[in-house]
Write a structure and sequence with these properties.
Order of helices and strands: HHEHEHEEEHHHHEEEH
CATH class of the largest domain: Alpha Beta
Low-confidence stretches: none
CATH topology of the largest domain: Beta Polymerase, domain 2
CATH superfamily of the largest domain: Beta Polymerase, domain 2
Number of strands: 8
Strand order of the largest sheet: 1-2-5-4-3
Helix content: 40-55%
CATH architecture of the largest domain: 2-Layer Sandwich
Oligomer: single chain
Strand content: 15-25%
Distance between the termini: 27 Å
């Protein structure tokens, strides 16, 4: 099957990429300038799918992490993180709202973009982990280093396919495949078709994928086990439910038997065998 037509619909245009790059550079500079002016030891870094170039056309959710030195007390990290987030959004004439994950962060609505500004610790490996969000920096760096340029389009195809069948997203209400998990599957199986073939023909319950050979897969009891290359004690697929995994496997089999563009359109599929 020729994926060119699908890719033309889901790949950000050169214009979109330029606009996003300009906007994120301005965000980072604004945060770093405010931090310097207020003598706060912190540096902003772009993370997530925009940093990795793996976002779907028109869906650039921007994640800026503000890295604090490891010795920063948690209360100071929260206080200064929120302060820098609010001031950045105000400077850029956006609307701010506070949200809560491992610790509070600020979401800004600026010029049509949604921006998450999240304080974290400036860790260099998983042994320094102080909260779950700190990992995101490591994930972004790992994908940027290990995902080949020509594999970006394969990630986009996989993400769109997952979205179309309602299996994309690791939040509780979805119980599907996270973006980072999709990227790791492309690294493990080289391309979109390779992932589908592995799922349709090879995966068994408790399937272990361990790209870096950490050897910790046996300690997990999930339907799919993908050892985090940056943290041997974490299963990236922990949020994936058996239901969503089964749905993906069935649709992957159907697609391989009869590949059609329809599979990339976000409609409800029936997985009942009649």
């Amino acid at each position: 099957m020729d994926y060119k037509k699908i890719l033309s619909k889901i790949t950000p245009t050169r214009q979109e990429k330029k606009a996003v790059k300009r906007f994120t550079n301005k965000l980072i500079k604004t945060i770093n300038d405010i931090a310097e002016k207020k003598n706060i030891k912190a540096k902003a870094e772009l993370v997530g799918s925009v940093a990795k170039g793996t976002w779907l056309k028109g869906e650039a959710d921007i994640d800026i992490f503000i890295k604090f030195p490891l010795k920063t007390p948690k209360e100071k990290l929260k206080k200064y993180g929120l302060q820098l987030g609010h001031e950045c959004i105000k400077t850029m004439k956006g609307q701010a709202e506070e949200k809560y994950a491992a610790h509070p962060y600020v979401t800004g609505h600026i010029k049509g973009y949604e921006v998450d500004i999240v304080p974290c610790y400036d860790i260099t490996d998983a042994s320094q982990l102080k909260s779950a969000v700190d990992r995101t920096i490591l994930h972004t760096r790992y994908i940027k280093k290990n995902l080949k340029k020509e594999q970006i389009k394969e990630v986009l195809l996989l993400k769109k396919f997952m979205k179309a069948i309602g299996a994309y997203g690791s939040e509780f209400k979805v119980g599907g495949f996270a973006g980072y998990l999709c990227e790791l599957l492309i690294i493990a199986y080289e391309n979109f078709k390779g992932v589908l073939e592995a799922a349709a023909l090879k995966w068994r319950k408790g399937q272990i994928i361990d790209i870096e050979g950490h050897g910790t897969g046996k300690y997990f009891k999930n339907p799919l086990i993908v050892i985090d290359p940056t943290d041997k004690n974490r299963n990236v697929a922990a949020a994936l439910t058996q239901q969503k995994l089964s749905e993906f496997i069935i649709v992957a089999r159907n697609f391989l038997e009869n590949p059609k563009e329809d599979y990339f359109q976000e409609i409800k599929y029936s997985h009942d065998k009649e």
